[in-house]
Target: Glucose-6-phosphate isomerase
Amino acid sequence: MSFAVDANGLDVPDQLRSQLAADDVAARLVAKDATLWGPEAESEAAIRLGWLDLPATSREVVARLADLRAELAAEGLDRVVLCGMGGSSLAPEVICRTAGVPLVVLDTTDPGQVSAAMADLDRTVVVVSSKSGGTVETDSQRRAFISAFAAAGLDEKEIGARFVVVTDPGSPLSETAAAMGARAVFLADPNVGGRYSALSAFGLVPSALAGVDVGALLDEAEELAARLAEPGNPALELGIALGGAFRAGRDKLALADGSGSPIQGFGDWAEQLIAESTGKEGRGILPVVLESADAPGAQADDVLLAVVGDGAPARQPSLGVTGPLGAQFLGWEYATAVAGRVLGINPFDQPNVTESKDNTNRILGEGLPVDPPAAKIGAIEIRGSGGALDGVDLSAHDGVVLALDALLSAIPPRGYLAVMAYLDREQDAAAGELRALLARRTEHAVTFGWGPRFLHSTGQYHKGGPQVGAFLQVTGVVDQDLPVPDRDFDFATLQAAQAAGDRKALADRGRPLLHLHLTDRAAGLAQLRDVLA
Ligand SMILES: O=P(O)(O)OC[C@H]1O[C@H](O)[C@H](O)[C@@H](O)[C@@H]1O
Model:
């Protein structure tokens, strides 16, 4: 089935469609015309359009990957762990989930989750992926794995043979890879930004090593690539729908996997693409990843629902975006670039991502802030800023729900609530239920992100997009810390510094923020579920 967009009840002004046609956007995009996003974006766009060629240029890596997978299998190395953040892990996660192939994705600094990934070391190969080669989470995980392999008795050469590296040419990681004797290094096309890299080595290497037929993925994309210069092609239609909905006031995009679709977890990938590409200069499209098309939290009249892999649902307005995964990647990248032009922003930069990172680095240097709780109820410590606790009676036994309701009522018109959980995605998976539970209590859009993963995705929108968010940060006690070898911080400190750094970035903008710290993670999550149910 080819890539197609089915719109139900979405009226796109003819003027927008005819303007894009008159400007010859489809053909100019395929010709990599860097002027499409205005003069300020031109120099960046000139080095960020390589993703259009990937369905063809990535072919060269497929045979090499098959050989490498066979080589690893012959040595009994059949468990693949991927260390990478944002664009360096989100695509392989959806590729492997969709193919039903196991891949351990490590995009966290949670000490428990990182420790748990260091299991079955005798059959493990670690893919370290970072375009910049300088991402602290990924580098810390790499260090932890080296020390775990050493503790398991492997010598330096044997340890190097357990690593496969994906990075850009000339990055610090490419040098590290050579120094540590990594088994293989894949250098990606530097003219492709992280969130547009699904069909590059970043998407393909871990997926192929885990057992996915990545050649088929490229075939799926190539079929769409051949049509992208045509006016009225379906990816252009998707871009027009996103941009048209934005102009009509629907600046939140709810994303759900179709119930009849084989594609699993597409929203988690598209979330980064859309949030980082569009959320800047006080504008943007907020992606809201839903558990299913009828999940709560996206009913408001500022939301457009898009279902991936099935036709449009009955609800209006909505989009159904059908087609295989390889085409979905390319189609949504193209549509996001088109929407970027409609919004009048540069879809290839992420100007506000560094802010929380800089705060984190400063906190790592100066020490964690002392932040005494306003109250402690059961397994939950309550802290707040930006007026989130104004008027809340924290002595009440239901102080937690009062604080949550105060936060919800602090959401401005056309605003949203972002739940940000710096927890273990496996052991504390119950935190994921908070999104729907909170969404039932408000008509506003509610998003959920695991920290620090969302910092590389919706984090850009939170800071650079419209300042209409309210924020719930959830952190948890660390029972068993894990050192980061040869660094002067451990994982627990890094995780806490990331949470504190992001709190500071949001507080500096005066955003309402409620911080709940769980002194017992399981009990605290159960308590939250109870008070919200
Ligand atoms: O691949 P890396 O260089 O490690 O970058 C991982 C992520 O880091 C940053 O947060 C960027 O904003 C993301 O777009 C990127 O995907």
